[in-house]
TrEMBL record:
InterPro entries: NAD(P)-bd_dom_sf, Prochl_reduct, SDR_fam. Phototransformation of protochlorophyllide (Pchlide) to chlorophyllide (Chlide). Belongs to the short-chain dehydrogenases/reductases (SDR) family. POR subfamily. Pathway: Porphyrin-containing compound metabolism; chlorophyll biosynthesis. Its main location: plastid. It is found in: Plastid, Chloroplast. It catalyses: chlorophyllide a + NADP(+) = protochlorophyllide a + NADPH + H(+). One of its GO terms (molecular function) is protochlorophyllide reductase activity. GO terms for cellular component: chloroplast. This is NADPH-protochlorophyllide oxidoreductase. It comes from Ceratopteris richardii. Its EC number is 1.3.1.33.
Length: 341
């Protein structure tokens, strides 16, 4: 008898804690943001939390870094939850989904934002499953995450449930920036089909020689194709809004951390004064937060961009980034690689 009383005494506080956590988030929508511990992800987290409408799940590789980042921008305790996610490991993606589900939180928006970029790498690096790292992280990890969480999003009671994949102007070859070599090009996807492992296939999607900057751009084309394929397959069925965006060039972001020092020193002023494409992290975060919650940006299948006066418009994607046959091919090959087919 004494034993069962003790068990109850231990269980009670946990119960109270859980209901407090649920109360905190129950009136708010819940948004998962990958790569939320720095740059655009952190700025968006702050914008959503500041709106008072969202509880943000910061899905990050480095737990401590995310906690420190949240404190550094003054996020109130209880306005966010940090959960571990390493997009370069499919096992980690699956574990994250399990952890998220066991939290009991609903899911109203998913923002696939995290990205790695290795522009100066001479040799490829590989993910846990042996895929070239930038496509593994930026595309395949997000592809699996979004596919698994689709059913959670579908259950959302929000009038505006959304899945957003951050694009890039560099993968869009009908823009000036997209034409800076090496240009994105997926070719016939023979490298993707072979598993991007650098052993039995090329580490590059098009089967060519490794190029770190091109691998990043290619991964961004995959992101944009994936968003459109999600829209075609699931929008009508689920009512979920699928969108992509280019929030502007955030030249100060840590994405450039592996670039050569001279380029890093010159790039922000060049962007700011010569191309006028420069936006602050704060401004870009507000833009992405708009795509998450603004009712005027609820159209599905759209690639959003902003004018210099910060008004949003539907942008046109390059031929490759809007190629339906290629989108279907990338989708089907990706399904095989992440173990969904």
């Amino acid at each position: 008898m004494a034993h069962s009383i003790r068990a109850n005494a231990v269980a009670a506080p946990v119960e109270t804690m859980k209901s407090a956590e649920e109360k905190k988030t129950s009136t708010k929508s819940v948004c998962i943001i990958t790569g939320a511990s720095s740059g655009l992800g952190l700025a968006t987290t702050k914008a959503l939390v500041d709106s008072g409408e969202f509880h943000v799940v910061m899905a990050c590789r480095d737990f401590l870094k995310a906690e420190k980042a949240a404190k550094s921008v003054g996020l109130p305790k209880g306005s966010y939850t940090v959960m571990h996610l390493d997009l370069a490991s499919l096992e980690s993606v699956r574990q994250f989904v399990k952890n998220f589900r066991s939290s009991g939180m609903p899911l109203d928006a998913l923002v696939c934002n995290a990205a790695v970029y290795f522009p100066t790498a001479k040799e490829p690096t590989y993910s846990a499953e042996g895929f070239e790292l930038s496509v593994a992280t930026n595309h395949l990890g997000h592809f699996l995450l979004a596919r698994l969480l689709l059913e959670d999003l579908e259950k959302s009671e929000s009038k505006s449930k959304r899945l957003i994949i951050v694009g890039s102007i560099t993968g869009n070859t009908n823009t000036l920036a997209g034409n800076v070599p090496p240009k994105a090009n997926l070719g016939d996807c023979r490298g993707l089909s072979g598993g991007l492992n650098g052993v039995t296939s090329s580490p590059m999607i098009d089967g060519g020689a490794f190029d770190g900057a091109k691998a990043y751009k290619d991964s961004k084309v995959c992101n944009m194709l994936t968003m459109q394929e999600f829209h075609r397959r699931y929008h009508e069925k689920t009512g979920i809004t699928f969108s992509s965006l280019y929030p502007g060039c955030i030249a100060t972001t840590g994405l450039f951390r592996s670039h050569i020092p001279l380029f890093r020193a010159l790039f922000p002023p060049f962007q700011k004064y010569i191309t006028k494409g420069f936006v602050s992290e704060e401004e870009s975060g507000k833009r992405l937060a708009q795509v998450v919650q603004d009712s005027s940006l609820s159209k599905s299948g759209v690639y959003w961009s902003w004018n210099n006066d910060s008004s949003s418009f539907e942008n046109v994607l390059s031929e490759e980034a809007s190629d339906e046959a290629k989108a279907k091919k990338v989708w089907e090959l990706s399904e095989k690689l992440v173990g969904l087919a």
